[in-house]
Amino acid sequence: MIQIFQKSLPYADKTAIISEGQAYSFAKLHQASANFAQLLLDESADLAEGRVAFMVNPGFDYVRVQWGIWQAGGIVVPLCLSYPLPSLRYTIENSGASVIVVSPEFEGMLSDLANELNCRFIVLGKNETAKHSKKLPEVNDARGAMILYTSGTTNLPKGVVSTHANLNAQISSLIEAWKWTSNDATVCVLPLHHVHGVVNVVSCALWAGASCTFMPNFSEKEIFGLIENQKINVFMAVPTIYFKLITYWEGLAKDQQQELTNALAKLRLMISGSAALPVSVMERWKTISTHLLLERYGMTEIGMALSNPYDGPRVAGHVGYPLPGVSARLSEEGEIQIKGKTVFKEYWNKPESTAESFTEDGWFKTGDIAAIDEIGGYRILGRNSVDIIKSGGYKISALEIEEVLRQYPGIADCSVVGLPNDEWGELVAAAIVIKAEVDQKALNAWMREQMPAYKTPRKYTVLPELPRNAMGKVTKKDVVNLIQ
After folding, report:
1. What dotted CATH number matches 3-139?
2. DSSP-based three-state secondary structure for 94
3. Residue ranges per domain, the chain?
4. Between helices 60-71 and 26-41, what is the axis angle to 10°?
5. Could you report the per-residue pLDDT of 431-461, keeping only the tens digit for each?
């Protein structure tokens, strides 16, 4: 039996999911997902790792479809709800999906493609009657469970294949480290085609017997409402969301601010991830909420690998220590390398890329550059190909410069990149979003007082906002195109 399904069996009568104002028990989820598995199987006994792509709104339907695919022996391929048709086509074709499942509002977008690719097409609530009733297959932990596609910042996205054993290790590691229990309640405000939302929030909650409220559309007011009414005690988000919550809080009356601060203080755990957390945001959030955010580090291929401690000191700008069951080391170049059961099986149909991603002794090469501090914690310096700028013979961390820039009055946000340059190799440049007029000469002089001259940007470009992906990460390739 699928472990997440088995782990949640003792909580049959407890609320598992709150979606669109309706509460669903674990028993209801178990039955609905088993029914969907029967529908998927049709006349077969086992999907045998067949890929099922699904474009389903966050909520009860999403989870019953995901669990149903697993129980039928298939591999889940979640689709991004905001992707245009060409991107969806790429994911469906590349994964070799033979079945496409959609919420009714996406039927028009994907029905013709499903017909063209000869995929079975299931519209939720429309053609959901199973023709047969049969015993569900036994699913071995070594089987493929999920294919998530990387963001593809430098080339076409790669499908990351995780087995059930990988997911079990990722979830159980976080259950232990972050002390999840069946008394917890959380809310999912994150996209469900990324590991952050799928594993850290939804899967951890349900594995532990906790409840998960779904919020398909982000709303600062609704999030604070859940917190104020003590409907949740665990909250996970990306830095962009914390920035928006801070802005919303600052616009409230003093008495409302104090009420929210009192409510925030009662939460058990607040976590930030998927992008670097600016120290300024972390410090401001602590003032507002009394919580020093727990920052962690992970990626699609490895789940979560490093985390600041649940109990014990959390260091701003650092991502902490290896999680239970995870081994970590730095290469001579400072690259983080990871080993353990949490590490993915392979890139889908890309044996060469898979082989290139591992060292000869079996460590996964993350491509992220870090340093270890005096107490053994990891501090991310940047992504080897994106955040490490090679200028004039120096290796410069873009993240370090961004932290300093955010401290300057008038700058709301920023992104530092390297621009191709014949003389320097790369020229340090900054895109800035301003909240007040900024004199660039004064800014440049101030920056040179804060750090060595070779690290200071040679070019500043004001943008109305920074380009971001679905997880809130700044897409630096787009920044380069905007400021060149």
Report:
1. 3.40.50.980
2. helix
3. 3-139, 177-382, 386-483
4. 50
5. 999 999 999 999 999 998 888 888 999 999 9
DSSP H stretches of helix in 307-376: 351-356
- Half-sphere exposure (CA, 13 Å, Cβ side) for 124? 23
User: Is domain 177-382 given the CATH code 3.40.50.12780 in the classification?
Assistant: yes
**What pLDDT score does 302 carry?**
97
Helix axes 440-450, 398-405, angle to 10 degrees: 120
- DSSP H helical segments within 315-439, as ranges? 351-356, 398-405
Residue pointed to by tokens 């085609």: 193
Nearest to 426 by CA among 416, 412, 436, 440: 416
Between β-strands 459-462 and 51-55, what pairing exists: parallel, antiparallel or unpaired?
unpaired
Q: Convert the pLDDT of each residue in 109-149 to its tens digit.
A: 999 999 999 999 999 999 777 666 788 999 999 999 999 99
- Architecture of the CATH domain 386-483: 2-Layer Sandwich (3.30)
Closest to 388 measured CA to CA, from 399, 377, 379: 399
Say how many Å lie between the first and final Cα of the chain, rounded.
Answer: 54
Q: Which residues pair with 188 in a beta bridge?
A: 214
Instruction: Quote the percentage of the chain above a pLDDT of 90.
Output: 77
Domains 3-139 and 177-382 share a fold: yes
DSSP alpha helices (H): ranges in 384-450? 398-405, 440-450
d(CA 329, CA 332): 10
Q: What average pLDDT does the structure give for the chain? A: 93
pLDDT tens-digit profile of 168-192?
A: 999 999 999 999 999 999 999 998 9
153 three-state secondary structure: coil
